[in-house]
Write a structure and sequence with these properties.
By secondary structure, this protein is an alpha/beta fold. Helices cover about 35% and strands about 15% of the residues. The chain is built from 9 helices and 12 strands. An 8-stranded parallel beta barrel has the order 3-4-5-8-9-10-11-12, surrounded by 5 helices. The radius of gyration is 19 Å and the shape is globular. The mean pLDDT is about 95. The structure holds NADP nicotinamide-adenine-dinucleotide phosphate.
Length: about 325
């Protein structure tokens, strides 16, 4: 069970420090998804105490939100959940574009409420900054939704510190959702300290680096159809071998020092960065959540952080970030 939670202004339920990520459950860019399996995964997550569920309209072009809505409608699970979705990406013929205009936001909130079968979104996040619209204008539009009670807390994703400053001049900011995991640490110089200083809840995305930190990834793993890992630069030779070597050494460290798996260690590594940290864990079936409880009840030491850095230095000659996921600007 989940034993660590965080309180968020405006949200009555404390938030579990592990959240279920439902991008893969949308199917698109992940080689498809099985709806029955996806529903079971979401329900299992809530039943083991993961109350934070993160989705987005663009995940499977509505499919992830619809699946989350179906799963939570059953068994009174909606009221046990802190439902986080996003706004401000649109798609035409499968092509995704940023659009944070107030008009688009007004349309999207209604679509999301319908798909999610709910009367409120607990955390409403701007998915990617859209430089063609003033941030203040977008923030004001979300502030309107907050005042109307359609959303309970406001968040941003993939925003810089300057963009978060601009937002906070006109509206409260409760959460921020950047990429963050042992292998993707671009936020450490600025966004992470900013978030911790301003007590923003951090929804760290890609917590297990799309499976690289699961302890199950191997050279022989095949990806099907439109799975983004066919293009993800970390999964291409020769870099893939470097990341797998790092994962092996990290797994040895976790086992030798704590008797824990790499997956539990990778999640703990995020949580111990600060009190407001949470980790979004993408799962496609209930069994992939078996190790959730292993991430709680222990803590990493400064020596562990140094050991991780040492392992990365020794193994990854050609590091690369998560930039390949960014949708086109404009
Ligand atoms: N705001 C943004 O721009 C943004 C961007 C990306 C993600 N996100 C959010 O963050 C969430 C998490 O990120 P993510 O889903 O991209 O990646 P992730 O959580 O790092 O990795 C998810 C993948 O890891 C594998 N996995 C998970 N548990 C496993 C286990 N126990 N054993 C073996 N493999 C396991 C599964 O892949 P396989 O089963 O296919 O191997 C799963 O699809 C997303 O779902 C989404 O909610 C947000």
């Amino acid at each position: 069970m989940i034993t660590e939670t965080i309180s968020c202004d405006g949200i009555p339920t404390p938030i579990s420090r592990i959240g279920l990520g439902t991008w893969a459950i949308g199917g698109a860019m992940w080689g498809g998804a099985d709806v029955v399996e996806s529903i079971k995964t979401i329900q299992h997550a809530v039943d083991v105490g993961i109350n934070l569920i993160d989705t987005a309209p663009v995940y499977g072009f509505g499919h992830s939100e619809e699946t989350v809505g179906k799963a939570l409608a059953d068994g009174g699970r909606r009221d046990k959940t802190v439902l986080a979705t996003k706004v401000a990406l649109e798609w035409v013929d499968g092509q995704v574009r940023r659009n944070s205009s107030p008009k688009r936001i007004r349309q999207e909130i209604e679509d999301s409420l319908r798909r999610l079968r709910t009367d409120r979104i607990d955390i409403y996040q701007v998915h990617w900054p859209d430089t063609s619209v003033r941030i203040e204008e977008t923030a004001e539009a979300l502030l309107g939704l907050l005042h109307e009670g359609k959303v309970l807390a406001l968040g941003v994703s993939n925003f810089s510190t300057q963009q978060m400053d601009a937002w906070r001049r006109v509206a409260p900011l409760h959460t921020t959702q950047p990429p963050y995991n042992i292998f993707e640490r671009e936020i450490e110089p600025d966004i992470l300290p900013y978030a911790l200083k301003h007590k923003l809840i951090v929804l760290s995305y890609g917590a297990i680096c799309r499976g690289l930190l699961s302890g199950k990834m191997s050279h022989g793993r095949k990806f099907e159809g439109d799975d983004l890992r066919l293009k993800d630069p970390k999964f291409q030779k020769p870099r893939f071998s470097q990341y797998l070597s790092a994962a092996d050494l990290l797994a040895e460290h976790a086992q030798a020092n704590y008797g824990k798996s790499l997956l539990a260690f990778a999640v703990r590594w995020i949580l111990d960065r600060g009190e407001t940290m949470t980790a979004l864990w993408g799962a496609r079936n209930a069994a992939q959540l078996d190790q959730v409880a292993d991430a709680f009840g222990w803590k990493l030491s400064p020596e562990d952080y140094a050991a991780v850095d040492d392992i990365l230095r020794k193994t990854i000659q050609d590091p690369v970030g998560p930039e390949f996921m960014a949708p086109p600007v404009g």
